Amino acid sequence: MLNGKARAYTNIALIKYWGKEDPELILPKNNSLSLTLDGFFTETEVLFSKNFTQDVFYLDGMEQSRNATKKVSTFLDLVRKRANCPFFAVIHSHNHVPTAAGLASSASGLAALAGACNQALALNLSPKELSQLARRGSGSACRSIFGGFVEWERGHSDATSYAVPIDAQGWEKELAMVFVLINDQPKDISSREGMQRTVETSAFYPQWVEEAQTDLQLAKAAIQAHDFQKLGIAMEANGLKMHATTLAATPPFTYWSPDSLRAMTIVRTLRQEGIPCYFTMDAGPNVKILCQKKNVQAIQAALAASFAEKQIIAAYPGPGIQFVETEVTK
């Protein structure tokens, strides 16, 4: 038996990935930029054995359906081909992230699976190669290989699309992100479905791709200058433009809820009161608030008037993928 275990942390995109140039290879339409956080993570163990007759996937202790396992098996097929390994696998994955609720559980989940496979089959992949592999499971997973600020280079082929860390000279340690958990249930429209519908039908989408390139350059310049306000403005504008594309899709849809709008209003009010903070949302109703670490308590207090304590979670810049030593037997 060959086994490996890894932990990967979720990343939140400040400049979004929204749309695929190549759905099979998961090559994005534009570069994206994220911040890896310590508050949510996935820990995954994979075991390959000649005695297994099929792939079996356990998530938080519960065996998953064949449909849910199919995506994992498709990814494992890539690994098996690379390692020349004919064995099926059993996967035990524990999500310390609400699954499919817009909190990037697929990013941490597939990054952790890639890392566990790398360890189990002794692939000895470099961080860049591991990022390329994780991308084939879930696009944003390529960014969870690294900690802090990370840019996903869109590339034009399997070999040229991967994430790279951005050196902020430790400035990220001054920042934080406050999550407002509006809903931790699975979404009505998955990220994959929503993304595809937007690319194919939204009149706003071509402009989104063009704007995203400008937003990325503004965000990277802000990081290098350690300019929190400019980073926040670029992030918030980029997120709003992404969600605007869904309203112009056919049929139109949105991931926002009334509570999402309430949280956004609180952020704007805080800014008016002199507390700099900015919001973003991914493909789900939950709101993420980028702020300076020194203002976390004030922001939590303002949110507490409208949301329960358990809905408000602070997270801080986190590490890249971590490997857990396991006993490997054959």
UniProtKB/TrEMBL annotation:
Residues annotated as domain Diphosphomevalonate decarboxylase-like N-terminal: 8-163
InterPro entries the record matches: GHMP_kinase_C_sf, Mev_decarb, Mev_diP_decarb, MVD-like_N, Mvd1_C, Ribosomal_Su5_D2-typ_SF, Ribsml_uS5_D2-typ_fold_subgr
EC number(s) on file: 4.1.1.33
Entry GO MF terms: diphosphomevalonate decarboxylase activity
Coiled coil: none
Residue span(s) of domain Mvd1 C-terminal: 179-313
Alphabetically ordered keywords of this record: ATP-binding, Lipid biosynthesis, Lipid metabolism, Lyase, Nucleotide-binding
Pfam families: MDD_C, MVD-like_N
Record family assignment: Belongs to the diphosphomevalonate decarboxylase family.
Stated name of the protein: diphosphomevalonate decarboxylase
Chain's gene name: mvaD
